[in-house]
Amino acid sequence: MSTAQGQAGEERAARFLKRKGFKILGRNIRLGRGELDIVACNHDLLLFVEVKTHKTRESGLLALHEDKCARLLSAAESWRAIHAQYAHLQCRFDLIIVTPRLGLLSWVSPRIEHMRNIIN
């Protein structure tokens, strides 16, 4: 996917989270070796969300490999050190896969799949 499609997917993911009651605290935050696509919170939960915009669900899942997870953990740890006011919140890592519709269904909104607790 192109950068523009990736950004559009992240925008859709952010709107999805807002509809679910989350407050977006930051987007596209580079810290150390990693980048946090979306940081959000809701009541007692701090959410670090990786967004993958891919042609298929499977390719989105494959893009979340072991090294990527390690970089996410590192970036989240750095973010929490900078934002001590959120230290009391439970932390969770989620994945949102945005799959655009292809062919005759291209006019239909992309499919959004929200997977919780991708890193334990």
Q: Give the total of beta strands.
A: 5
Tally the structural domains. 1
The fraction of residues assigned to DSSP E strands is 35-45%
Task: Give the % helix.
Answer: 25-40%
Alpha-carbon distance between the two ends: 28 Å
Most strands sheet: 5 strands, mixed
Quick one: CATH class? Alpha Beta
Structural class: alpha+beta
CATH architecture: 3-Layer(aba) Sandwich
| Tally of contiguous helical segments | 3
Arithmetic mean pLDDT: 89
- Using the coordinates shown, work out and report the CATH topology: Trna Endonuclease, Chain: A, domain 1
Shape: globular
Q: Uncertain regions: pLDDT < 50 for 5+ in a row?
A: none
Strands of the largest sheet, in order across it? 1-2-3-4-5
Taking all Cα atoms into account, the compactness measure Rg is 14 Å
Present the secondary structure layout.
Elements: H1 3-19, E1 23-31, E2 34-42, E3 45-53, H2 57-62, H3 66-82, E4 90-99, E5 111-115
Parallel strand pairs: 3-4
Antiparallel strand pairs: 1-2, 2-3, 4-5
Structure in words:
The protein has helices at 3-19, 57-62, 66-82, and strands spanning 23-31, 34-42, 45-53, 90-99, 111-115. With 120 residues, the protein is of the alpha+beta class. It has one domain: Trna Endonuclease, Chain: A, domain 1. The chain has a five-stranded mixed sheet. β1 and β2 (34-42) form a beta hairpin. The protein is globular and about 45 Å long. The protein starts with a helix and ends in a 5-residue tail after the last strand. The model has no long low-confidence stretch (mean pLDDT 89).
